[in-house]
Backbone:
């Protein structure tokens, strides 16, 4: 192996730059060359390349976003797109490809792997909805961003004695919503993994009001419903007057937390190790503190479970 | 003068607690007693009081929101409400009242003043839309909060090469939007003080796109239109596909910045000075570095102008 | 079991308040009463108590430090002190005690346990030097605080092309220094677990200088030597002119990160679970995502190892 | 005028990059070319130049430090150095020079001005010790950084009931120390503008202790003495046991606050305006909200006074 390609794909996540830096420097340390493709698979197909050196990844470890930019590629979903990508990789003399992204990005990498091309994935998404790793890169930073925003809302909520609904990201998973709810000491959390029960929620809110609780925070995962829909339904069903906030793309940006900068550095180093050991078609993850390579398709085929005690905690601690 | 009342009213703003602390300690330093009313004029009418001591305001200087809580009072807008409030102030042996809030809160204070009751106002609102002071308490913190959120969006905007619309608060004024736009290096800003020109905006966006600018940030003050309305109109008129974020109540919370903690401390001390000098019916503000008491009604009757060079700067620096 | 005592002891750590809140609310949820002792074992001996309710722990989840205050107790190290503490616990009708702190605090708890009194420990220290848990409460926040400070230094270091030495806490362990070094992308790290080699360090610094590297950051754990001693030795041995910064107690304060707020909440809930199950003489920790109770003495008797790949990463990524 | 040079000199300050961006883009907007000199006057003498374009200053507005790097130049202090610098400016066809820095940097600019070369200064230093502007670029950010650090110390100070001494920067001036002391609600502040009285300080500390005050913060400006010297003297004179923290270079780094990003943008624009109007030999400052050009030598010849009420506030509010 002489030359490694790298790209970031799908939604950006804090720590992607730290992972790019770690892959690049680990590869160079092991006498490999590194080529970056810009805008994910789009840049691979378009030949939008940039050679990466020790110094070109200097100073990026703390920057949000991704210096290689990212995109979702419609073309790469189709078999002919994948074959064209394989063609490009050969034209650029790339011997292996490192893909940083979520499960959509990994399906593309898996398609390349099935055509015999060496790939290794690094899980980068704030949603944390991937098996094979305890945490994905960006999840911890997004939790901290959500927490900091919610703390600010709490100031106003308690000053005005109000009910606030906070919509957080997470696609079809509730990891981010649940973590933010426990961290922020929210009174209620709605996540896709638990069937939504409007009556139970209204009962809890009425009960809290009777006990003199002057303000409440409800965290709602975008996978359940939008904050504005919940606002309407709370008004209609229970007569509750709530303010809403949609954290949105704020959760995707910012400097990576210490946790994410370290995770990204370790997984970046681990991805190069996996390449050198010939562990192709894998994703590197951190499981119980160890860097482990698992089959890349397990990242979406296996089910990742929420910590079982966390949901109960919201009810117990939000009293 | 022996006993001073204090309340916070209207929307909360970071630094209100620092002002409460400064009023309380300055008053006690000058051998006055201090009584707090909770939930603004509502608490005054309801007799919801709390005596304030040196230690009861310890440790609050950095807390967002207001320990006295706040509310908008429908009752106090009416003459009979004001008379009832005056009655309560006499029942509690209050000799003068300090009101921390925006222009709505000051109209209530002015009504008391016209009935002969000694009042002094401290301008506390993130909107900065009050004459008689270069800055209101909370404005600087809100600018920093908006800036930090926008910086995070910039990460994603530049990674995905997108157009983002950010709606910031400010009621009918553009101070917050304009400050945030210059601070964040936004490409465009829409404020109520400048007539909105859809064609001009679209032209600028097209021109930027032609020049290869991969992403743009537009800051829109809530007083112009909502971000979602602007999103629709940009789509309809110019075919632009924009993401939106509404910063909302996040801008109201958080620990006060150094600037706001100092401003609140100085204005709190200044309010007690004004009371001791018999400068009733005034608002204390900071003008060119000095603490100055002006007639309270000037705070909404006079026009506060935007810095003339700031608007031009957005165009010049956002190229 | 009807009444539970709780205290924080030793050095304070961010998240201790979140743990106090979680223990209190979980206990009350399970129909137990909760009594707090102020200033650690000192307050136990002095009978400095405060009953804790659902609302008295409201709003503390994000505050740094500990609402119960903390202290190191000389008296409680001696057998007669422990017996006196036991006496007090009986006087207050305490059926079990939850101790939040580091290994020194746990030795005291173990002494009570050996006298037959039910205790459960919650590991709270920024040093992370305790076995039986992947992370102690406060470690993640301290890493983030160190990272944020080091990032600011990096601005000046790169603007002035300088060598900076940063001394971080951690007592006799290098967890905090190593994590901060990887997170910050530091060029070198000195930790107590690795014998210090002055010649090797000077060689690396000379080599970096020859390669044109304009600035470098060295992280030194307080357990190795002080930054000022290292500064002198670098000057004497290699002629290097370095600036120093000692992060000091800044690392101990601040709002807990999302990770620490969640960890503290889970361990607080887990400590009450352990009490209810009769798992006395234990420490609750988080191992591979699960909340686990281990013998409390294992927290200092067992050896906790650094992640083996982290040290190598500093060399590989700091090139 | 066709081509403008720009350099940053002396200690770096947050917002210098925002000023570089504003000068560059304003100049280009006015059809001027912009050349940057790296490492201050050193780079001018060495011909270390970089052409600046609209895009080369993109994305730097929020970065700490200075992309042009900075240095103190021994050579440029001497007359022959200044003449050599003038020679270089002519070789590079530079028609005017913008210097961003403190008073040392401005003395160099003044020397060029006296030789007939057009210069304009932009005040950039965290010390705020320059007349002709209410605030220097970087001061507000440094105040916020100091405040955030001190807040963290306060957590530990109050948890452990301790006395903390915090040494802040400011050279021979007390602006930063005084602002931080009021913002942080410190109990005492020592600044160079006020003669130090050890007995008075000890009396205050004893009095606070008698009143049951469990912890105190003393802010000491580096221009008075070092924190460790004060620590020794407090021990020797009054028997006080204090912990110390030296904020050091942390105060120089970080992203500029909103205030500083706006100030830097306005002064950068103002500097180009001054050049176009032929106002050479000046420094642009912000006075009472207006951008004003004053003779550059006034920045160190005139005396800048502390706000008279601030010192009294520390005593009144720190009770």
Residues:
């Amino acid at each position: 192996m002489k030359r490694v390609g790298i790209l970031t794909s799908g939604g950006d996540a804090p720590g992607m730059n730290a992972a790019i830096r770690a892959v690049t420097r680990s590869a160079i340390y092991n006498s490999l060359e590194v080529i970056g493709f810009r805008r994910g698979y789009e840049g691979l197909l378009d030949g939008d390349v940039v050679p990466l050196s020790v110094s070109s990844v200097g100073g990026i470890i703390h920057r949000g976003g991704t210096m290689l930019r990212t995109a979702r590629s419609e073309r790469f979903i189709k078999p002919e797109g994948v074959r064209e990508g394989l063609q490009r990789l050969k034209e650029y003399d790339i011997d292996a490809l490192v893909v940083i992204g979520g499960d959509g990005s990994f399906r593309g990498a898996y398609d390349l792997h099935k055509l015999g091309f060496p790939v290794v994935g690094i899980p980068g998404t704030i949603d944390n909805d991937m098996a094979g790793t305890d945490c994905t890169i960006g999840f911890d930073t997004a939790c901290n961003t959500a927490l900091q925003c919610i703390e600010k809302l709490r100031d106003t909520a308690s000053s005005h004695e109000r009910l606030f609904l906070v919509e957080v990201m997470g696609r079809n998973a509730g990891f981010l919503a649940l973590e933010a709810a426990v961290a922020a000491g929210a009174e209620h959390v709605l996540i896709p993994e638990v069937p939504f029960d409007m009556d139970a929620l209204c009962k809890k809110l009425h009960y809290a009001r009777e006990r003199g609780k002057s303000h409440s925070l409800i965290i709602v995962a975008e996978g359940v419903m939008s904050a504005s829909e919940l606002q309407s339904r709370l008004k209609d069903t229970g007569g509750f007057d709530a303010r809403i906030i949609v954290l949105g793309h704020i959760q995707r940006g910012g400097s990576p937390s210490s946790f994410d900068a370290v995770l990204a550095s370790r997984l970046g180093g681990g991805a190069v190790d996996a390449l050198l050991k010939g562990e192709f078609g894998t994703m590197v993850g951190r499981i119980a503190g160890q860097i482990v390579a698992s089959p890349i398709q397990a990242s979406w085929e296996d089910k990742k479970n929420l910590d079982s005690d966390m949901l109960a905690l919201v009810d117990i601690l939000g009293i």
